[in-house]
Amino acid sequence: MGVIITLCNPKGGTAKTSTAVNLCCGLKAVNKKVLLVDFDPQRSASVALGYEYFDSENNISSSVLDGVPIESCIVPYTKGGFDLSLASDDLIAIPAALRERLNAHEALADALAPVKNKYDYIIVDTPATLNMITITAICASDYLIIPVSCDIFSVDSMMGLIKKYHELKENGLTHSSILGILRTMYDKLLPLASTISSELESSFNDLLFKTKITYNPRISESSSAAVPVLLYDRTSLGSQEYLSFTGEVLKKLKVLEGAA
């Protein structure tokens, strides 16, 4: 049975998209069948992989808003060996379009349902906001990963997200669990980053991934080259850290899914 994992943090600049695309590559490297859903009106993941909005007749907004079968909204990302459902700026209409829809929080889950069991993992990249787009992604998910850069604004945004997650959980709107918190953009030379990292370890020890994604120019370069760093430079520190992170994700899921 397929597992849906959403990456979310309402703060921009937390490496959500870099983490999403490289997690997909890492999972493919161990022969998992993967679908990446770009659920961001800014199309960050689509752009990061070199796609224009017109590269697919349909995209994820076509499925969520117009009922187009999800199978028609998927393209292969041949460089990485996984599939992709592109985004469009039409996604910005979701909060208004779903306002009157019955069970609106299930819109993304309903769209993905026909293909969920055709993939081992469906990875959802979300925008830097906590509106209905992100909420429907949380409600569609089995697990959440929260990337957090080691700065006070990112941590504050993460706390707001966790609060909203617990509200959704208490109201029975999501069955998801928080798989973990990933420290990103980490620079050990910055005293504040080290302090915040230590505070996160104290407060979220069980949820915190041991791997930290260090600030690395090769990751930025790979985005400019429109490929994940795992394909751009497999020997880079960024690639090594994302492979380590992927291993942690799989280990956690094995424990959690085995206990289910």
From TrEMBL:
This protein's superkingdom? Answer: Bacteria
The record's section on Pfam families has: AAA_31
Task: Write down the InterPro entries for this protein, in alphabetical order.
Answer: AAA_dom, DNA_Partitioning_ATPase, P-loop_NTPase
Q: Where is the AAA domain?
A: 4-171
Q: Which CDD domains match?
A: ParAB_family
SUPFAM superfamilies tied to this protein = P-loop containing nucleoside triphosphate hydrolases
List the PANTHER family. Answer: P-LOOP CONTAINING NUCLEOSIDE TRIPHOSPHATE HYDROLASE, PARA FAMILY PROTEIN CT_582
Q: What is this protein called?
A: Chromosome partitioning protein
Native organism = Succinivibrio dextrinosolvens DSM 3072
